[in-house]
Amino acid sequence: MLLKSKTFILYTTLCLIWGTTWVILKKSLIEGTPAIYGVGLRFFAAGIILLLITFILKRPIPRSREAINIYISFGLLNLVIGYGVTYWATQFIYSNVASILWAGFPIIVVIISHFYLPDEKINLPKIITIAIGTTGVLLILSQGKTFGGNDVFLGMYFILFAVIMAAWPNVYLKKHNHAVDTLTMNALCQTGAGIILLTISSFLEKDQVMVWSPYNIFAMVYLTLFGSIAAWLIYIWLFKHLTMTQIAYIAFSPPVIASFLGWKFLGEALTPLSILGAVMVIIGAVAINIKR
């Protein structure tokens, strides 16, 4: 896979951002960021910035029924539930395990696509990669007691739930991508999701106080500017300039980076079986989108 220098730099940057967000997120939770409040504030801030960008660039705001359905499904299922549940569940498990479970996202997307997209039917090679990825997840779940505290299994199951919920709107978007401007969609969805999550936090986390330590300020800025804005803008650019095979390889790097950083800075050691499971999930995630 040979990439031009600009593309390679952006490709590498995206992998680094997605790989580092997990350990930064986990440490911010440890240092006193209420989970739902943290993700809500992150999305709200990112959404406002993206809205300013769409205004400056004079991007359209589609209002068709398909567009509104995308705004609602992507905002609620992908951002509010997908990310909201992930933030909450990461309190109970290792950051590297959360990243590995999310690496299975492309596999879930392919399964759902089989039923809704005529050109995305599951064939024998895809069945094999799904089986590999699923076996990897089961291996990781079998090692759950080594990945955190008493609620580690609860955390892992909720992460899987978040992945499944986030997959459907991506399939719907792929089917109706002509109906929206992707920059406008992300701006509206992140802003709306931020408002909803902050409202939920005001009820569920009213006894928790945000600790505005130097690290938590850094984490909020990093996750907002890089995790929610830069990474998405880079991904959209790469999506237009790379093949789906090249895009699929992006699934490989973040869990590897997250696993190393989690081990290095948070002492998150993985068992041999969990490492094997991680490798199987990553292989499945990469192979599932490679055209044959």
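^ that was protein a. below is b, sequence first then the tokens
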Amino acid sequence: MNDKDKLDDLTVDELEQLLYRKKRAQRLGRLRRLKGEGRLVEINGHPPPIELESRAVDTPPEELVSDDQELDSADDPSKKPGIMSRIQWRWVANRFLLFIEIGTVVGLVVIALLVWTTARELNQEIAVVQQTQTESMALPTIAPTPVIGVAILPSGHKPPVEGRPPEPGEAGEIPAHLLPIIDAYVPPPIPTPGPEQARRIQIPVIDVDKPIVQGDDWEQLKKGVGQHIGSSLPGQPGNLVLSAHNDIYGEIFRDLDELKPGDEIIISTERQSYTYVVNDIDVVEPTEVSVMAPSEHASTTLISCYPYLVNNKRIVIFADLASAGSLSSTTS
């Protein structure tokens, strides 16, 4: 390695020190030359300049004190106070930064734990609230109820007696186990009138044209033909159940036994009329409530006591929807 390469490897401080030493060497050379020529003046009590300069110890650039040697010299109390102070401040600063880093890490860990704990507690509280709401909103268990809410077919009454008012009740024997159910039965409330409710029934073949009222209990059947509350609306899928008396209160359904399959029954609302066609006729016991069961298609069932003036049975007419038309087409 040549001298130029060595100079390139030196730091600025080392170059300045090298330049300083070179100038000092030149100055010492001049002093020696002046002394040899006798031109150097010596003053009593003061050493000649050449001796002062010679006291300095040359330090070649390659022997400069390294940073590690300065750190080692900081432990020596005989070294300069500036070096020790600088090293002490550096040590304090490093320790301070280390404490800051440790504190930051610890703080982040604590914050993470607090967030996790808070989130867990919040989730638990939310779960409790949701459980409470679910329990409060839970629907009660519905007890199974029969599709048909009655134990006996409507329109039942005692055979009429001359000079006495009609009496409700059954002319025939009722099974003992059904008596408590019949006695406890309370007719449902009459629904609010609506334009889709049945209002009129026409059976041309037996000359019936009467109003339809909602409800088929004793009081409602005094007014005309009663629709069983909860049965289907006219023209809608389901079973539209209608009943009326045969020998009291107008004897509206007295001649149901004259109907035969194919005869028409016209039921009207405020807006439209519906034509049903008879497909079956049957005579059943008063307890045969299955004839009132809902159907999947639009149908109607007519019920009345039977036979005439005996009333220990029921005559039932079954009909299916055939067509629907405007109200004017059936108005006489």
